[in-house]
Design a protein that fits this description.
alpha/beta; Rossmann fold; 2 domains; eight-stranded mixed sheet; 8 strands
Length: 293
């Protein structure tokens, strides 16, 4: 089954993203799974999707859009559950990756090339609007959030993840105690790449994140949500378990431990395993419902 053609609106993806996705194209193909997920990032996104499924009451008739869709994992997750999903991104490369991943699962998708601050959709068109790992790439995320609100139906739900790099969390401690010294030793003494060692260390310290455009805190985002009119909104840690840079075999073991932890936590707390007070990483989930007319 073939995916639908791209609808083009305000094309021209920033070169840095197009170059990034171009390098990652082969790496991101045919990796979707809901069974024995062995990679950390894939499993944490799977957990997020299951949380959203619970929060939206698992309605199979939703019309949803994912803005800044990446390879389309979230849209694919919900399409397999009967949702009508639309994928939006500025990058032709990433929209092609998403199309192929849908085809691999026997599904098609509507793909729209557009700036998420100015989409071609009608007002109040979607039941669910999703945006993951995108808002930190805008100096002022008010416009993309306002556009999400505009195209959301009254009573519909908005979901967005945000990065807050300045908050001390478990990931910060892991970076200081594990990633920074490990990166320093590996690149400086073993691989003999001092420039690469410096680049990675500065990245862990937050000094050379070329893709991040803002350093807004959680209060800033909540203020924006109130400004655009989103009521009944909540904010919670996106991932409570820190990321560890590990060789493939050890990453599989680590993800296995996380899966076991999540099963036990759910059984004990009777809540979704992502629910927590203190985050293990720098990412947070903001979600809320548009007021009904």
């Amino acid at each position: 089954m073939e995916g639908s053609e791209i609808k083009d609106n305000n094309p021209g993806a920033p070169e840095v993203f197009e170059e990034y996705w171009g390098k990652m194209e082969n790496h991101l193909r045919s990796r979707y799974s809901e069974g024995n997920i062995l990679r950390y990032n894939e499993y944490t996104m799977y957990l997020l999707n299951t949380l959203i499924e619970e929060l939206t009451s698992q309605n199979s008739a939703y019309h949803a859009v994912e803005l800044g869709c990446g390879r389309g994992d979230s849209s694919l997750f919900f399409a397999k559950r009967g949702w009508q999903t639309v994928l939006v991104d500025l990058s032709e490369v990433v929209l092609h990756i998403a199309k192929q991943n849908f085809i691999d699962q026997g599904l098609s998708c509507l793909r729209v090339k557009a700036d998420i601050r100015n989409t071609p959709f009608n007002e109040s068109e979607f039941d669910v609007v999703m945006n993951y790992g995108v808002l930190e790439h805008f100096k002022d995320p008010t416009d993309p959030l306002a556009e999400m609100f505009r195209i959301l139906k009254p009573g519909g739900m908005l979901f967005a993840t945000v990065v807050y790099t300045k908050r001390i969390n478990l990931q910060t401690l892991v970076d200081w105690l594990y990633h920074i010294p490990g990166t320093f030793i590996m690149n400086l003494f073993i691989k003999r790449r001092p420039k690469m060692a410096l680049k990675y260390i500065k990245g862990y310290l937050g000094f050379n994140d070329e893709l991040y455009e803002n350093e807004l805190n959680l209060e800033d985002y909540l203020s924006i949500m109130e400004k655009i009119g989103l009521s009944q909104f909540h904010i919670m840690p996106f991932v409570t378990i820190p990321y560890l840079r590990l060789p493939s075999y050890f990453e599989k073991l680590y993800v296995g431990l996380i899966r076991a932890y999540c099963r036990v936590k759910r059984r004990v707390t009777k809540r979704h395993p992502l629910c927590a007070v203190w985050g293990g990483r720098r990412q947070w989930l903001i979600y809320g419902r548009k007021p009904s007319l």
